[in-house]
Design goal:
single chain, 12 helices, 69% helix, globular
Length: 269
């Protein structure tokens, strides 16, 4: 489909992707302020960093689940991550014009989300302990951070492909994704800050003015997810990938190269 025709027909899905990523950024910064700002009563009540990461993981996992299951998430497929979109494009499920529209919208939405929460919370998000929820390499350094981002992105994408293309498990894909987000924030964040998403890292970096390590989050998540797509195709075949939506059991339209009806038929068998 030519780019102009795709924009004319599919702009609602592009707008939804922008909104979903903006909402995710608002949630990320808002919960970081709540859990990490020195003036927060919750921060004072929870001195253990590990416990705060558990709560942050639960909060962001729940955010991801809510956004994917929401009517808007059901409509767009709820990627809100250029790495997801790129992997599904590699798998042949997204038209080039739609992939470009999704990625552009995701970048716009992520940056607007940071601006919106910063306008509301002001200096709270800029406090050193919050720092716009920037994703930064941990004490172990750049190489472990890069490797960890590749690993969690690979595991997440492979899980999405395995579950979303399984007749009985497909409806639970958002729960798997949310559980992984919570797990990575709890246990992996000390290594890389837990991004898996170039736009999520860019939004925080733009607010905090920290760009030196941004290349990690622009390269590792797409690499990990593309590797997962390659592994899945080699093991199961390209025909085993039915659609690019993370949740498809709904009445919303689908703009992808969709073969979900085959999976739906298997569910009924």
């Amino acid at each position: 489909m030519p780019s102009e025709a795709a924009l004319r027909r599919h702009w609602p899905e592009y707008g939804i992707e922008a909104f979903l990523l903006g909402a995710f950024m608002v949630s990320a910064l808002g919960f970081t302020v709540l859990l990490e700002h020195p003036a927060s009563p919750l921060r004072a009540a929870l001195p253990e960093a590990m416990l705060r990461r558990v709560l942050m993981g639960c909060a962001m996992g729940a955010t991801a689940i809510t956004l994917v299951y929401s009517p808007w998430g059901q409509r767009s497929g709820a990627h809100f991550n250029p790495a997801f979109t790129l992997a599904f494009f590699r798998l042949g499920k997204i038209e080039p014009a739609d992939a470009l529209g999704y990625v552009a919208a995701q970048f716009a939405g992520g940056l607007l989300g940071v601006l919106a929460i910063a306008a509301v919370l002001g200096s709270l998000v800029a406090a050193p302990s919050v720092n716009y929820a920037a994703t930064l390499p941990g004490m172990s350094g750049v190489a472990p951070a890069f490797g960890a981002e590749v690993a969690i992105s690979f595991a997440t994408m492979l899980t999405v492909l395995a579950v979303s293309n399984h007749a009985r498990l497909a409806r639970f894909t958002p729960l798997f994704v949310g559980t992984l987000v919570a797990t990575w924030i709890t246990f992996e964040a000390p290594l890389s800050g837990m991004s898996m998403n170039p736009v999520r890292s860019l939004g925080s970096a733009a607010g905090a003015g920290l760009f030196s390590s941004l290349w990690i989050y622009f390269t590792a998540p797409p690499l990990g997810m593309l590797l997962a797509a390659e592994v899945f195709v080699r093991v199961r075949g390209r025909s085993a990938v039915h659609c690019a939506k993370l949740h498809h059991q709904n009445s919303q339209r689908c703009i992808f190269r969709c073969g979900y009806h085959e999976l739906a038929a298997a569910q009924e068998a």
